[in-house]
């Protein structure tokens, strides 16, 4: 099988050359050590994955001298760990068919006398019956009807014996031998293939719409995989949107909480706020949180409405939630209000950065129009002179995306008052947010003469982002232990 190993984001390779130094030195850089998001994986077709799985089935079947159908049951139940299965069953392969531990069944005909089917209560010749390793026998008509009903409900590899409280799984060869309808057979094979891929720890379906690509990687970290066909990006570990530095368990809790408390948080969905100085209504139409009132020219923060100068460059306090030191002595209702206030603090910033990413797409369009106007007027510039701004906008989006996913991490970290890393995380989060807002402000007002200043700010932002991810990005071990 041809390998198509690739980096998680092709564009990041070009950025890495700028970030790590001269092109002559790039070959000497080990991205596994320098980039916490570095990730190797394959983008495979359905045929390639079927070939991969069939090779494992054939190898196990030959090793243990069992049927391919039973080999599939074993591999699917043991997450395709062939070595583990061989070590466990090599010495008792003859007992595989009756082992309740593996829950594997094997179809066989009953070849003597007349039997009564427990399902349809009809007496039929014994050659019209099939039994599994558990010994339960049913007529072929009832088996085929059972299979069709199960497949119509989306069940395939988990079809079990019809006897009450029997957990023996029905092997593939028996199912396919008794399903006569072509469309049901196709559905069964389709569902079975999906089950096999989902049970294989190194395989993930691309979540892109109607995309048939399957991602394979031996690195089970919660890293970002990008489909080479549809360009959909997602977390390889859990299959959700990429969420570094928050781990898979925390982002699941966060999204569940956001869904549960969505009505409570509706009040923050408004896109307008009053200027804290002149009280005129202002609409946010860009991604930058550094606002300047068009009426009184007052500079303030969109999130906390504080004077922008007081945010300072040394410490950006807006992202940190200030705990009430006396909350433990307050009433239950007061504690509940404080808990809601804390959640809304983090949710508002999470939602704000999500909206900022969307608004910055509009800012980019306005930027293109402004550049086009300047170029068409011949104001001593060409499109090449402005290309650095589009690179800056791309980096800004990447940094803001990472920043958005720091807030679920920060919310749940705030629950642990004894966390020694909490202060460090909040400091790095604040530093990253301050530099991102600075870059966003400069991009929206950039001229060709600002290239050096903006590229310097880009370098600062990316270094802040990489530092935060290196310190707080979940490792493979931690991620697996938390699932």
UniProtKB/TrEMBL annotation:
All copies of the RING-type domain together span: 113-322, 117-161
Q: Which InterPro entries match?
A: Ariadne, BRcat_RBR_TRIAD1, E3_UB_ligase_RBR, IBR_dom, Rcat_RBR_TRIAD1, TRIAD_supradom, Znf_RING, Znf_RING/FYVE/PHD
Query: Which Pfam family would be a valid example here?
Result: Ariadne
Gene3D superfamilies reported for this sequence: 1.20.120.1750, Zinc/RING finger domain, C3HC4 (zinc finger)
Subcellular localization(s) per the UniProt record: Nucleus
Region of interest (Disordered), ranges: 1-27
Q: Cite the entry's keywords alphabetically.
A: Coiled coil, Metal-binding, Nucleus, Repeat, Transferase, Ubl conjugation pathway, Zinc, Zinc-finger
EC no. given is: 2.3.2.31
The UniProt entry's coiled-coil ranges are 347-377
Q: Which GO terms describe its molecular function?
A: ubiquitin protein ligase activity; zinc ion binding
Which GO BP terms sit in this record?
A: protein ubiquitination
Into which EC class is this enzyme placed?
A: transferase
Query: Which reaction equations make up its catalytic activity?
Result: [E2 ubiquitin-conjugating enzyme]-S-ubiquitinyl-L-cysteine + [acceptor protein]-L-lysine = [E2 ubiquitin-conjugating enzyme]-L-cysteine + [acceptor protein]-N(6)-ubiquitinyl-L-lysine
Broad class of the protein's primary localization: nucleus
Q: Which domain of life is it from?
A: Eukaryota
Q: Gene Ontology terms, cellular component aspect?
A: nucleus
Which family does the record assign? Belongs to the RBR family. Ariadne subfamily.
The name under which this protein is listed is RBR-type E3 ubiquitin transferase
């Amino acid at each position: 099988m041809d390998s198509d190993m690739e980096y998680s984001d092709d564009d990041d390779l070009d950025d890495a050359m700028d970030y790590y130094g001269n092109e002559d030195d790039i070959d000497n850089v080990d991205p596994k050590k320098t980039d916490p998001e570095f990730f190797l994986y394959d983008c495979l077709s359905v045929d390639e994955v079927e070939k991969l799985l069939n090779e494992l089935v054939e190898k196990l079947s030959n090793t243990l001298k069992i049927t391919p159908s039973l080999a599939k049951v074993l591999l699917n139940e043991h997450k395709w760990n062939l070595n583990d299965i061989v070590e466990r069953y090599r010495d008792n392969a003859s007992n595989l068919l009756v082992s309740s531990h593996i829950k594997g069944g094997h179809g066989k005909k009953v070849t003597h006398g007349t039997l009564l089917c427990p399902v349809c209560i009809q007496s039929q010749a014994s050659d019209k019956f099939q039994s599994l390793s558990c010994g339960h026998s049913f007529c072929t008509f009832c088996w085929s009807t059972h299979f069709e009903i199960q497949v119509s409900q989306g069940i395939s590899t988990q079809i079990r014996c019809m006897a009450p409280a029997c957990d023996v799984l029905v092997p593939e060869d028996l199912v396919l031998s008794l399903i006569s309808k072509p469309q049901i057979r196709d559905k069964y094979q389709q569902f079975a293939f999906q089950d096999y891929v989902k049970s294989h720890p190194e395989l993930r379906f691309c979540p892109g719409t109607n995309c048939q690509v399957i991602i394979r990687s031996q690195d089970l970290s919660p890293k970002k995989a990008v489909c080479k066909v549809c360009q959909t990006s997602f977390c390889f570990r859990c299959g959700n949107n990429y969420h570094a530095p928050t781990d898979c368990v925390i982002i699941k809790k966060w999204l569940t909480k956001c869904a549960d408390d969505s009505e409570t948080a509706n009040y923050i969905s408004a896109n307008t706020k009053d200027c804290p100085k002149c009280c005129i209504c202002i609409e946010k139409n860009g991604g930058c949180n550094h606002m300047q009132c068009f009426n009184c020219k007052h500079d303030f923060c969109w999130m906390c409405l504080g004077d922008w100068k007081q945010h300072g460059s040394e410490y950006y306090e807006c992202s940190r939630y200030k705990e009430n030191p006396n909350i433990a002595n307050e009433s239950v209702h007061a504690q509940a209000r404080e808990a809601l206030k804390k959640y809304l603090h983090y949710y508002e910033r999470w939602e704000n950065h999500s909206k900022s990413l969307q608004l910055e797409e509009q800012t980019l369009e306005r930027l293109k129009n402004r550049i086009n106007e300047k170029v068409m007027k011949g104001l001593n510039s060409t499109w090449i002179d402005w290309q650095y701004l589009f690179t800056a906008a791309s980096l800004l989006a990447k940094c803001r995306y990472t920043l958005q996913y720091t807030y679920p991490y920060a919310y749940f970290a705030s629950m642990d008052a004894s966390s020694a890393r909490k202060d460090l995380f909040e400091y790095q989060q604040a530093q990253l947010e301050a530099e991102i807002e600075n870059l966003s402000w400069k991009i929206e007002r950039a001229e060709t003469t600002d290239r050096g200043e903006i590229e310097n700010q880009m370098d600062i932002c990316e270094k802040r982002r990489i530092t935060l991810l290196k310190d707080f990005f979940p490792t493979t071990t931690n991620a697996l232990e938390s699932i």
